[in-house]
Amino acid sequence: MYSPYWFARITRDLTNLSLLRQPPCHAQIVSLHQSGTHWLRHMLSVYLAKSYDLPEPALLYDSDFVMSPKQPAKYPHIPRIVSSHSVASPAIANAVVLPLLRLPKFILLVRDPRIVLSSHYEREKNRYGIAFSDYLRANTRALRKIGRRKRFDKDIWWDIRFQNSWYKILSLQPERTLLVRYEDMQAKPEQKLLEVIRFLDLPVQDPAVVNHAVQQSSKEAMAKKELANKRYKVVRQDNKDPLAIYSEDDKRFFLEAYRKFCKADFGYDLEAGW
Hints:
CATH topology of the domain at 13-112 and 156-240: Rossmann fold
Largest sheet: 5 strands, parallel
Distance between the termini: 22 Å
Radius of gyration: 19 Å
Helix content: 40-55%
Number of strands: 5
Structural class: alpha/beta
CATH class of the domain at 13-112 and 156-240: Alpha Beta
CATH architecture of the domain at 13-112 and 156-240: 3-Layer(aba) Sandwich
CATH superfamily of the domain at 13-112 and 156-240: P-loop containing nucleotide triphosphate hydrolases
Number of helices: 12
Strand content: 5-15%
């Protein structure tokens, strides 16, 4: 199977040293797209606001408490937590270099990669203007044919690169990297949020404050904080089966790609639930 995987690993990931160039921080959330990043960010933001007696975020996109890596801190006296979708460079994610670096603790947020792909497609399908099967196969020719774009914001190869690079860091430094699965966060949000808080040694760790942060980050509560004219809605209310979009050929392609290229094991059974 041809793939742009190794080409991107060499030409893009190897030289991506953003983890070394960004300002110091207490911790960093690194996540797959469509894996609950806004949800976790919002829960942590409410928790920090309550813990430090600061105004809680008024909008879902508030970055006062969890921000992009290069954004200045609004409250310098509280732990600085940043968030990104960055793919870690192989030059960093190896047993020789990684122990020599002073990197922050990482929260690695993932989701069933089959759903990550279908969810991203549903979000961007009108902009891409192509069938899911073409998107799944990263068919940039289909994009160019209709003259809209030259490449996807992210595709199956980006997902595999992200998972492989961060799984390597998780394997090398499990004491400094906490794996959080979206599905576990859905099942037990208070427990998972408390795990994150304890892992990061954040203040208070009061179950009442944790409960408040979870309640204020429900779908209903977060939907009220979305901007009415925002192009994309973070809070999705549909209950469609995200795996129903895969044809039999799509399933075979996905499984072949993951078996051949993905070395990460986050506990997902990728052959179940189709």
